[in-house]
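Homework help board

Subject: predicted structure for assignment chain

Our instructor gave us this sequence and asked us to write out the predicted structure in C-alpha cell form, then describe one feature. I got the C-alpha cells but I'm not sure how to describe them. Can anyone check?
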Amino acid sequence: MSMTVGFLGLGAMGAPMVANLVAAGFAVRVWNRSPGKASAVVGAAIAGTPRDAAAGADVVITMLADDVAVEAVSYGPDGLLAGLGQDAVHIGMSTISVAATRRLVAAHAEQGRRFVAAPVFGRPEAARAKLLWIVPGGTPESIAGAAPVFVALGQGTFPMPGAEQAALAKLVGNFLIGATIEALGEGLVLAEKGGLDPEQLLAMLTATLFNAPIYKNYGPRIARTEFVPAGFALPLALKDFRLILQAAEEVAVPMPIAELVRERIGEALERHREAYDFAGFTSVIRERAGLRGTRQGPGAD
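My C-alpha cell output:
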C-alpha cells in the first residue's frame, strides 16, 4: 500500500484503528495530545504536531472526543490544515456536531482542501476486529479515494450526500442506541421486580423478536448490571446527547426521549459514575424503582 496516512487521536478507538492501518501496509504517522500513547503504537512514525502528521500525507484522519478537540487540531499554525496537501483529504471519523462539521467543510473549502466526515458505528472491540460501519459524507471523488482506508478499518460503508448529513446520521444512530438502552432498562427492571430472571427473559427475547446487535450487545450488560469496564463511557454519551438535542433544536424537531436519556445520563454522572459504560445509565432506572443500581460484582454501588 503506497498511501501515507496521518492519524490524530490514539484513544480507545484510535489506537486499534492505527494498528489495522499499519497491518494493512499503510505508512502511518501519528499524533496524540498525550505523547506516551503515540510512542506505544508499533509500526507508526510519531509526528510532533498535527501539521507534521498531515504534511505529505494522502489522508489525515481525526478520531477525537468532541468538537473542541477536532477543531483544536485542525486550525492554527500547527493545525493539520496548515500541513494538508492540495490533493490530500481530511477524514473526520469523530462524533461531532453538525455545526462543527459545517465549519470544517467551510474552512477546508476556503483553503482549497477536502474534508470528508466519516463517523463510525462500533465499539473498541469492533475497531480491533475491523468491524466498524463507516458513514462517509463528502464529494464522491473524495470518498472513492479513501476507499482503501475504509476497507482496512471496517466491514462496510454507507455514503451520505454530504459531510453534514454524515454527522447527523451518526447522531441519529446514537440516539436510537440510547433510546434502546432506555427501553431495555425499563423492561428488564419491570421483569426483575415482577419475579422474572432478567437474563433468562433477555435470552428469549434476543432469540426471537429482538435478534439484533444492539439488544445482544447492550442487553446482557443491563440484565447483569455489569457497567464496567466501559466501551463507551457515560461522559461521551452525555456529549453526544447534547449534540443530538442541538441538532434537533436547529431544525425544530421535538425529541422527548432524547431529553429523557440526557437526564438519565446526567443523573448517573451526578452519582459519580464516570467510569460506567453507556448502558450504565440504567442504574438510575433501577434506583428509581427501588433496586440497587448494580446487583453484584465490579462497579456495584
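Reply (TA_rk): Your C-alpha cells look well-formed. For the description, you could write something like this. The chain has two domains: 4-159, 167-288. That's the kind of observation they're looking for.
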